[in-house]
Amino acid sequence: MEEKKKIVVSGIRSTGNLHLGNYFGALRNFVRMQDDYDTRYFIADLHALTTNPDPKALHESVKAVLAEYIAAGLDPEKNTIYVQSDVPEISEMYLLLNMHVGIGELMRTASFKDKARKALGLSGDGEEIEKDIIGNSSNNGRVNAGLLTYPTLMAVDILIHKADFVPVGKDQEQHLELTRRFARRFNSFYGVDYFGEPVNFNFGSAAIKVPGLDGSGKMGKSEGNCLYLADDEKTLRKKVMRAVTDEGPKEPNQPVSQPVENLFTLMELASKPEVVAHYRDAYADCSIRYGDMKKQLAADLETIVAPIRQRILDIRDNDEYLSKVVAQGAERARAYAADTLRDVREIMGIRKI
């Protein structure tokens, strides 16, 4: 009897084209997992609604992410690839699970605080964001409830499949911990052993935080510091050459500044070890030339991106093919989700008279 494969679930928000942060932080591992695991990957268009996108832009983003999933190496025959909103069972279970989630624990999540500050136009990192959100501020901004309950929806994305593994980046680890907490709470409240506790899985390596080109933080669409998988060679090179650095080391073995360390992090992801070692040594003895380093980095990144870009161009306008892929994925995903939702309704007492 063939051993049942472990279930892997993950998704990426449809808020525009995918970038190298998505690739190194998630997609690369998605592809590695597809032969040995029961892999289920979705396009998170419901999550994308928290930023109130233009409807046409949202639809185009879903198509773009789907094409980029496949171009990066995800085989629709080996994976369940679907659009989140094509599985209505997710939305119903989202409502049900929210009955066991506290407002306070949601408001304390780091990502919610960061996004709420941006929505309200606030600066700083104070802990009193709650007062500004509930109206004790003169600011006229608004924080939508979907942003607050984002971790619940993420938990449902995972638990509705009863996933074993969830490959996520470093910035999503707190949300995954909340998913485990919600699973324990559900089991405890109803006296059942229904949900397991999924864990992050990156083939034994630490979760990756891919830096942007602006000298701080992670690579992200909202930060405008991305290298996109769909960028042409000229655009990619130009972005890398404009990356923030510093005035260069003044004495041997001095600490590396954050902007330059970001470039080294990208180089460690894209370049051969001996190339990284060469530039590390050059920094240590003050002989480094940032222009040369950037040219090398751009060339190594182009080697990775070029074949993906070509596949994107080959399939992104093939609506018939893309529609077939998501229809097939939705059928599979709904079958899994319907079983879980039926059980959850029964456990919670939502039964027919």
N/C terminus separation: 40 Å
Strand content: 5-15%
User: Remind me, CATH topology of the largest domain?
Assistant: Rossmann fold
CATH architecture of the largest domain: 3-Layer(aba) Sandwich
Q: How many strands? A: 3
Helix content, binned percent: 40-55%
Count of helices?
A: 15
Number of domains: 2
Q: What is the CATH C level class of the largest domain, in words?
A: Alpha Beta
Question: Which structural category do the helix and sheet elements fall into?
Answer: mainly alpha
Reported for the largest beta sheet, the result is: 3 strands, parallel
Can you lay out the helices and strands and say which pair or pack?
Elements: E1 7-13, H1 20-33, E2 38-44, H2 45-48, H3 55-71, E3 80-83, H4 88-98, H5 103-107, H6 110-120, H7 129-133, H8 145-148, H9 150-159, H10 173-190, H11 233-241, H12 258-270, H13 273-284, H14 290-315, H15 319-348
Parallel strand pairs: 1-2, 2-3
Protein architecture, described:
The protein is mainly alpha-helical. The protein folds into 2 domains: about 5-100 and about 150-210 and about 320-350, 3-Layer(aba) Sandwich (Rossmann fold), CATH 3.40.50.620; about 235-315, Tyrosyl-Transfer RNA Synthetase, CATH 1.10.240.10. It has 15 helices and 3 strands. It has helices at about 20-35, 45-50, 55-70, 90-100, 105, 110-120, 130-135, 145-150, 150-160, 175-190, 235-240, 260-270, 275-285, 290-315, 320-350; strands at about 5-15, 40-45, 80-85. Strands 1-2-3 form a 3-stranded parallel sheet. α1 links the parallel β1 and β2 (about 40-45). α3 (about 55-70) packs across α14 and α4 crosses α9. The two termini are about 40 Å apart.
